[in-house]
């Protein structure tokens, strides 16, 4: 039963994040803050792809792979871009500062929910 409550809570937080980003666009009649959704939805993809491309060796499991590090770098770049994009748009007066704040908070809620979903549904390795 705890799993179902977790899924419902994460879905509720994801809905609040999307609501904040959509309201940041709709309330101020400017749809540029919607670009944040694309960056946060795409942020886990490099980590996932590079994690799948890593060769799993049972005997040599201690070192880190450069492909995994590339995936982490690209994920970090997309997360930082998701925060910096509304700041740059607000600084250049393309969007209002209220829309920037709502977009950043909503985007971070979306990203943390996506990460929580992946951690919750991660398959355990069997030996």
TrEMBL record:
Membrane topology (UniProt): Multi-pass membrane protein
Entry annotated with the keyword Transmembrane: yes
Keywords attached to this entry: Membrane, Transmembrane, Transmembrane helix
InterPro entries, per the entry: Vps55/LEPROT
Transmembrane feature ranges: 7-25, 70-89, 101-121
A Pfam family reported for this protein in Swiss-Prot or TrEMBL: Vps55
Gene Ontology biological process terms from the UniProt entry: late endosome to vacuole transport via multivesicular body sorting pathway
GO cellular component, one term: Vps55/Vps68 complex
Predominant place of localization: membrane
Location(s), subcellular: Membrane
UniProt similarity note: Belongs to the OB-RGRP/VPS55 family.
PANTHER family assigned: LEPTIN RECEPTOR-RELATED, RH04491P
Record protein name field: Vacuolar protein sorting-associated protein 55
């Amino acid at each position: 039963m705890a799993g179902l409550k977790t899924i419902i809570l994460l879905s509720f937080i994801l809905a609040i994040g999307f609501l904040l980003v959509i309201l940041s666009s709709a309330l101020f009649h400017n749809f540029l803050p919607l670009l944040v959704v694309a960056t946060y939805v795409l942020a886990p993809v490099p980590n996932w792809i590079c994690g799948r491309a890593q060769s799993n060796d049972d005997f040599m499991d201690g070192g880190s792979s450069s492909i995994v590090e590339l995936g982490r770098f690209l994920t970090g770049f997309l997360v930082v871009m998701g925060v910096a994009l509304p700041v740059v748009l607000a600084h250049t007066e393309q969007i209002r500062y209220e829309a920037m704040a709502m977009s950043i908070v909503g985007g971070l809620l979306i990203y943390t929910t996506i990460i929580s979903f992946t951690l919750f549904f991660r398959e355990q390795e069997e030996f």
